[in-house]
Amino acid sequence: MKTRRIEREHLVPHTVDGKTRMVRDTETIEIPVPPRDWDQIALSTVTAIVTLLVASCVVWSTVSVGDLLSSVVVAPAAYGAAAVFDLAWIALMIIEWLARYTPTRATKARWGGGIALTIAMAAVGAHGWLAGDAATGIVGAVVSGLAKGTWTILLDYQAMPLDRRTAAFLEQELAEAGAELSRVPVRRRVNRSRALVEAERRALATGNGSADPDPDQSGQSEDDPDSNVVPINPSVLTTKDAVRTAWDSGIRDDAEAVRYVAKTTRTAPSPDTVARYMRLFRRGLAG
After folding, report:
1. pLDDT at position 208, please?
2. Are residues 147 and 260 in the same domain?
3. Residues 43 and 154 placed together within one structural domain of the fold
4. Averaged over 85-102, what is the pLDDT?
5. Residues in CB range of 10: below 8 A, 6 or more apart
6. Which has the least CB within 10 A, 27, 162, 229, 277?
7. What gap in Å lies between CA 228 and CA 250, rounded to an integer?
8. Pairwise CA distance, residues 249 & 29, whole Å
9. Helix 134-158 vs helix 103-130: angle between axes, to the nearest 10 degrees?
10. How many angstroms separate the CA atoms of 206 and 34, rounded?
């Protein structure tokens, strides 16, 4: 078994003049070296080869189609448009790989990649035919087909095979996560809209002279833990929003949070609900 040496530090007792202290010492030990993973080495080699094939295909196809289009447009625009032919099916292949755990979503990318590859091969073949050398056009078109085929086989090999039930389960998991993620911008828009409605209501109330610009604050104690909290209109405030406001105001005690929620919403909240929201905010999980 192959081994390699490493240095390791540890504490050892050391005595000087009868006084013992724990000091750092270094020792050299030998540990076994794991055997080479030839499967992973082979897979990495194949991946590098396929990447080189795809890069060569892009260069060849871009030059060929660019030369075809340069007869009608300026060269920079022609070669820029020519690159689209191969980049399209490469991008769709990447999307197919990303959707490997949801076969229904990967189907569209697979078909789209095949169509884009066919168009790219037809463009390369047309260039050879118009140049008077059909054989060169056919061989050039096959280059793109070989690169696409090799890359597809590599992706299929690396993707884990899934049975129908497991694929359906993963699709539901992704759908649930997507629903939770989609609620973030929706909740943000709802809160923004509620804030605008509240701002307009207060502005209209102030304009009509119904709001007291200097309300009486004599009934509020200096020891009130909610003295620095800006009150919110209870008609548009949920328990979770009130707990969030209490948390942002520095309230960390569940009992104080219950009192604050009751004061701002003018209802008696469930202490368990308030405690649950407070735990979420402590963990940073509340949205």
Report:
1. 55
2. no
3. yes
4. 86
5. 24, 25, 27
6. 27
7. 9
8. 56
9. 160
10. 77
Tokens of 267: 């209802």
**pLDDT 10s digits, 128-146:** 888 888 888 888 888 888 8
| Domain membership flag for residue 188 | no
Is 153 in the same domain as 265?
Answer: no
Instruction: Return phi, psi of residue 5, to 5°.
Output: -95, 140
Helix (H) or strand (E) holding 7: strand 3-16
The answer to whether residues 49 and 120 belong to one domain is yes
- Domain range holding 88? 38-162
Identity at 149, one-letter amino acid code = G
Determine the pLDDT at residue 287: 54
Shared-domain flag, residues 43 and 108: yes
CB atoms within 10 A of CB 108: 13
Query: Which residues lie across from 88 on neighbouring strands?
Result: none
Contacts of 66 (CB under 8 A, 6+ apart): 75, 78, 79, 81, 82, 83
At 245, list the tokens.
Answer: 């406001």
Evaluate whether 243 touches 257 at the Cβ level (below 8 Å): yes
